[in-house]
Amino acid sequence: MRFCIVTPCRNAAAFIDETIFSVISQAGPFGIRYHVQDGGSTDGTVEKLDGWRRLLNSEFPRCCEGIEFSYASEPDRGMYHAIDRGFRACGTGDILAWINADDRYMPSGFAVVGQVLERWPDIHWVAGRISIITEAGFQKHLSARLFPQKAIRAGVFDLRHFPRLAIAQDSTFWRGRLWDVAGGVNADLRLIGDYDVWRRFSEHADLVTIDATLSSFRQRPGQLSEGLSAYHAEMDQRLTELDKLTCDRVAAEYQACRTEQERVAAGFSARAVVFDPLAMSWKLVTAA
Q: How confident is the model over 181-234, as pLDDT tens digits?
């Protein structure tokens, strides 16, 4: 099994070491292909990347079956252009994901994802719980949430209809063949690239929630995700009027459901993988 992970970055010297270490320290029966696509940093990021390249070409201890690390630094049109370049540099892989240069994966995250996708071949993409970490080091773990395929496809998780409910990119992993059939990321987008690709993924497969913390998202001033007005402006430019009407209708249906039975009847059930402490193994359930 091969994980292909991409990190887009620009002037990320403050946190890039944490992000890289969280990838290369993953332990389990898999290989890791990791590429960092830098947008032309001037703050020492490139020097750090070159240091990691030299370190990983030496006798750096590995807890997995192998690590292939690379980086490139060149001007780009934005984060999603960098991500597209990164995956092209990585080549093919069984499991894909990207993580931004101030976030980090939790230990054993890859092992959990690998076990789930190996055990259930009909699961094509997954999202786990996240924790939020501040610059001061405070960490808060969030509860697992379900994301019904019908609602993702309609685009209701847009931080407008449900402001506190969105698919966390840093905890999301998918099979390489889903990436290929969905067409990958739109390199021309600046802010809504993940929202766009999730909608296209949902045309082909349901998102399965893993009830385990897979990543940490860092909250800090100046993030692209900080200003939602620009995020929604780009979204409104891209969506058709039919898209917007469908989104509003499905969001109203979803919000009107008060019980699990109502959500199931309305087509808003979703699958989740939870850990059974008695059997000491994961199990797949359907809930709403």
A: 999 999 999 999 999 999 999 999 999 999 999 999 988 665 555 678 999 999
Alpha helices in 186-266 (DSSP H): 193-201, 228-238, 241-256, 260-265
CB–CB of 87/96 below 8 Å?
yes
CATH number of 1-103: 3.90.550.10
Site of tokens 């931004």: 100
| Element holding 211 (H helix, E strand) | strand 207-219
Residue 37 near residue 71, CB atoms below 8 Å: yes
DSSP annotation of 64: S
* Rounded Cα gap, residues 115 and 278, in angstroms: 18
**pLDDT (0 to 100) of residue 64:** 97
Per-residue exposure over 178-188, b if at least 16 CB sit within 10 Å of its own CB, e if not: bbeebebbbbe
